[in-house]
Amino acid sequence: MSKSPDIDKSREEIDRLDDEILRLLNERSRHVIAIGKAKLEADPQGLLHTQGREAAIVERLTRQNAGPFPNEAIRPVYREIMSASLSLEGTQTVAYLGPPATFTHVAAMGKFGASAQYVSCGGIKEVFDAVERGRALYGVVPVENSTEGVVNYTLDMFIDSTLLIYGEVMQEVAHHFMSTRERIEDVTTVYSHPHALAQCRNWLDTHLPGVPVADVSSTSDAAARCGAESGAAAIASDLAARLHGLNILHSRIEDHPHNVTRFLVLCRHASEATGKDKTSVMLSVKDKAGALYELLRPFASHGINLTKIESRPSRRKAWEYLFFVDLEGHARDTRVRQTLEELKGRCLFVKILGSYPMHV
Q: Model confidence over 37-96: pLDDT tens digits?
């Protein structure tokens, strides 16, 4: 079948536009390199990554986009443009709770793009340690899941850590059923992390009744086992399927379709104010009647909205508790600053864990 002249003409125009896009990307990159050099001269120990600038670019482009290119595609496209641009300014090293292809890895790539250098860590403590010791500029750790609740170990690490929360990522957890086999009927064992198996229990009971399931240390480890074991299947991310060359036999098998995990980005540097920020604070209250009321009253009196409050044993004194609070606003905002100052007189101690852009 011969091609339509209109198709040939449109393809020629697309080729011309692609050439122009590449030329403009290189022109943009030259300006990025100049900015990076100026930043390093002004502050050799400073960060090249600028969250407020990135958010402003995406918001501006989304606002003025006339289509038909979809608005929801602008963010991932510019994430990779900015990731590649930052790699020209300097290496962006990101430590994350590994191994590769876990949902933490997926969240880290969603924040920093494919051009960053990623360092897999065996535990949450190792991620904190990598950033504190300067082996990585940033760290990414899970802090809570919409169905499983908080990751207590992450909260506990902030008690003694000097790191700041630099950002947050809300990552949808979509579980996929994968194998080297072509048919689900050929699967004899299913591997995954215990949380993933629990989140897919109804699907497994319906489609694979009687087939053994086995716990492993991560969804990535489960995917790796598939290639080495005949008849094995895994429940893991689409990134794990791509890295290990597996067939996705069924997509999105989680029992609750709105399963989201919140990840925190760690850094030794504070994030700049963007106008749409969140602040996380750790508080210890005095052991007396009405202590919780006294804790919450300054937020109400200053009109500060709390988005989360979580309590944890202090580990230092029996029945003494720490409160982890997320509130809207930046620590430099007048109302937030006044609230935190008032809290210092009501609490045993107040520790600001970081002010950072809200995930959008």
A: 887 777 766 666 677 777 788 889 999 998 899 988 888 898 888 888 877 777 789 999
- The arrangement of secondary structure in 91-173+260-267, i.e. its CATH architecture, is 3-Layer(aba) Sandwich (3.40)
| 263 carries an active-site annotation | yes
**Digit-coded pLDDT (tens) for 96-110:** 998 888 889 999 998
Residue 71 DSSP one-character state: G
User: What H or E segment, with its residue span, contains residue 242?
Assistant: helix 238-244
Percentage of the chain lying above the pLDDT 90 cut: 53
Options 263, 299, 323, 324, the catalytic residue:
263
In one letter, which amino acid is 45? Q
Given 3.90.1180.10, 1.10.10.10, 1.20.59.10, 3.40.30.10, which CATH number is that of 5-88?
A: 1.20.59.10
349 a catalytic residue: no
Active-site residue identified among 261, 274, 279, 339: 261
Helix, strand or coil, per DSSP, at residue 332: coil
User: C-alpha angle with apex 122: 120 to 126, nearest 5 degrees?
Assistant: 90
Q: Look up the pTM and report it.
A: 0.82
CATH homologous superfamily of 176-250 equals Periplasmic binding protein-like II (3.40.190.10)
